[in-house]
Write a structure and sequence with these properties.
Largest sheet: 7 strands, mixed
Oligomer: single chain
Radius of gyration: 24 Å
Number of helices: 21
Strand content: 5-15%
Shape: globular
């Protein structure tokens, strides 16, 4: 696996007069409702987009895919407002398109988004009028609606919403695409531009364990689209060695040359947020509890924990309360049925639903220990976040979870209910063992700064772009 450094990227490439633009795709992040807590892949994509926005390098930008053009374009002002969570570099402000272009880009974006059109019109009108209301605001709303109806009529008549060649922004040299591009409807639209793409390989779960993710068309075609990207020469960025090795092995079995894989350290995003808030110290609570932060879906194996807490109730064993933080996902009918059949279980198990960063930080600061019994993972943020906040966590034997917890924590087969029950009881009752694990974390684990993750990803993108330029130069000779 490649772990690039700035030195390795720049040597031999200093003759390039104008470095190619490196772009982070924010398309997927646009589909996450503003103001909601981010988890998993959206959290990573938010980190990447905001790192690009804050980077003073003029060759780095954030983009979104325009379906009607089949191209990536810089974010419109209202899109920047949607995704930005910190300071934006001045060079990004200069790249904001004019208001006429912003209306055009905004229409194109919202045409594919599940937002209420009236709310969208109000949002865009506020953007164009700088938040001022009155006659100008109302007139702008009417103009936006008229523009949307005009574009819809052109599309129905077969006209192109944007004439080719009229855009003023150059396309980026290399785009790190969002998970949405890879797994949803836009992925086929960019198939002709795969030579300019890189991708984050979070995992290969749809290919390795399709029984755990449903049967939607996006999932069934996941492997073939990965293969298409790798054939085109797109490099992969992986947070774990396990995923990188699995990707390489999958391509070998498919008869495809191994991709260039860049390993980057997963950033401790939540802990960094807590540090800025001055909220990393331990909080002692009156009632001990166990934390499991994850979307509630079949592969996360919440049903194993429900059975264990039910077993404890039946045996008269007092376990700490189990707090499951995360939104409800898919294929959880067996869990819902189990909870319905054992209603007393909800007296000792809490499902919080989606929580904000501030709430999640409070949970980590006060939890007694964590659990993460997932069947398969690409990383397992809940495990590494436990270590970031200094609390022990029991993980499953999924290789990526062992990697995410640094091999420091007890690991048990996700199908071994007896083993999990024994470990949870020991963690709850054996204060000496739990303290020894806490001390091990303090000695051997350090949260990963977001800046270190961004530096590794940016260096990999630079190196990939340089390789592509060299390859194109050789072909043209």
């Amino acid at each position: 696996m490649t772990e690039p450094t700035d030195a390795s990227v720049t040597n031999g490439n200093e003759q390039a007069a104008s470095p190619p633009t490196l772009a982070i795709d924010a398309t997927g992040l646009m589909f996450w409702p503003p103001g909601k807590g981010l988890a998993g892949i959206p959290r990573v994509e938010s980190f990447l987009v905001n790192a690009a926005l804050a980077d003073p390098d003029p060759c780095v930008e954030a983009v979104a895919f325009r379906s009607s053009e089949g191209k990536f374009r810089p974010l419109a002002p209202y899109e920047l407002d949607h995704v930005a969570v910190g300071p934006i570099s001045p060079h990004q402000v200069k790249r904001w398109p004019g208001r006429r272009a912003a209306l055009s880009q905004a229409f194109e974006a919202v045409r594919h988004r599940p937002w209420d059109k009236r709310e969208t019109d109000r949002h865009l009108a506020r953007t164009v009028t700088n938040g001022r209301k009155g006659v100008a605001y109302q007139a702008t709303r009417l103009l936006i609606r008229a523009y949307r109806l005009y574009q819809r009529a052109r599309i129905r008549l077969g006209a192109e919403p944007h004439a080719p060649g009229r855009g003023t922004e150059a396309e980026p040299g290399l785009v790190l695409i969002s998970h949405h591009i890879l797994t949803q409807q836009d992925r086929s639209a960019v198939s002709s531009t795969t030579g300019t793409l890189a991708f984050l390989c979070h995992d290969l779960i749809p290919t390795l364990r399709p029984d755990l993710i449903g049967t939607g068309i996006g999932e069934t075609r996941f492997g073939s689209y990965l293969e298409q990207l790798v054939r085109s020469g797109a490099p992969a960025f992986c947070a774990s060695d396990e995923v990188g090795a699995t990707l390489t092995d999958h391509m070998r079995k498919a008869g495809i040359a191994a991709p260039v894989v860049y390993r980057f350290p997963m950033p401790s995003i939540l802990h960094e947020t807590a540090s800025r808030m001055g909220a990393t110290s331990r909080i002692e609570t009156g009632e001990p509890f166990v934390i499991y932060c994850s979307t509630i879906e079949v592969r996360k194996n919440h049903i194993l924990l429900a059975r264990i807490w039910q077993q404890a109730l039946e045996e008269g064993v007092k376990l700490p309360r189990l707090v499951c933080a995360g939104r409800w996902g898919w294929m959880i009918e067996p869990l819902r049925a189990y909870l319905k059949d054992h209603p007393a279980l909800l007296n000792s198990v809490t499902f919080t639903g989606l929580v904000s960063d501030e709430e999640l930080i409070q949970y980590y600061r006060s939890a007694t220990f964590g659990v993460f019994p997932s069947h398969i993972e690409g990383w397992g943020y809940g495990a590494s976040e436990c270590l970031d906040f200094g609390i022990p966590v029991i993980v499953s034997t999924a290789p990526s979870l062992i990697e995410a917890s640094g091999g420091l924590m007890p690991a048990i087969d996700p199908n071994d209910q007896a083993g999990w029950y024994a470990a949870i009881r020991k963690m709850a009752e054996d204060h000496g063992w739990r303290s020894s694990l806490t001390e091990r974390i303090a000695r051997q684990h350090r949260p990963t700064p977001a800046s270190a993750s961004w530096a590794a990803i940016k260096a990999g993108l630079r190196e990939s772009a340089a390789r592509r330029l060299q390859s194109n130069s050789r072909k043209s000779v």
